[in-house]
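Exercise 7.
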Amino acid sequence: MRLWALSDLHVSHPANREALESFPAFPDDWLILAGDVTDGPQRLDWCFRQLTPKFRQVVWVPGNHELWTIPNAAPELRGVALYERLVEIARSHGVLTPEDPYPVVELEDGPVLIAPLFLLYDYSFRPRHVPRDEVVRWARETRAVCADELVLHPDPFPDRDSWCAARCEDAAARLAAFPAALRKVLINHYPLEEQLAVLPRIPRFSPWCGTRRTESWHRRFNACAVVYGHLHIRGTEWLDGVPFHEVSLGYPKDWDVGLGVGAYLQEVTRAPREAPSQ
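Solution. The predicted structure, written as tokens, is:
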């Protein structure tokens, strides 16, 4: 069994949607979808119908696009209610979500816990001198804007910061309940480390890219790999001996449609197991 990962499929774009229809099959393996598969419950349902027959198991975490409330689209669910509806859709297809028990799978290098996380962001990926209440204005000085400000609602939380804090607290408690020695694959749409939220073309977009609350989670929870997307900058960075896989496909301009989407599947390599002490 192998672990494959991909994020930011953005199938609202016709070229990406067509590519999904010819997605390769790996019936013995697992597929991790690290968010921004699409926007809207109906499209997400369609995506799962395309993908679940091609893998033994699909694991999904939401990105910001899944959580958008599109004006005049039915049903106009918001915030937590929308997220809960997406979880219902995923479960109807047998897809594992952040609300399900974290499975432990036996891989060639031993047992590994698969932890799909939904942690959001809280604007803390910003320079220390920029106050929280000034961060959106600061970003807009360089025309960095995020549609979330208009269409991602935190209801019933008062703001996205509070929703993020609650999600992080819950996930940390769940992870801490497992044996410390058990190796884990952490999956989140956003990077867990601020140093990875670097966007050369739009550097002031970082406030919408994660939270400092997850700093050092890869060490705290004995991660052997971390999977994320959102940045549309594919690649693997190693921090403290742990591979951080950014697995975005992206918009049509971000990938070579002629290669097919299968060329962009990332196998989740893991940090080698430590040799037992003598």
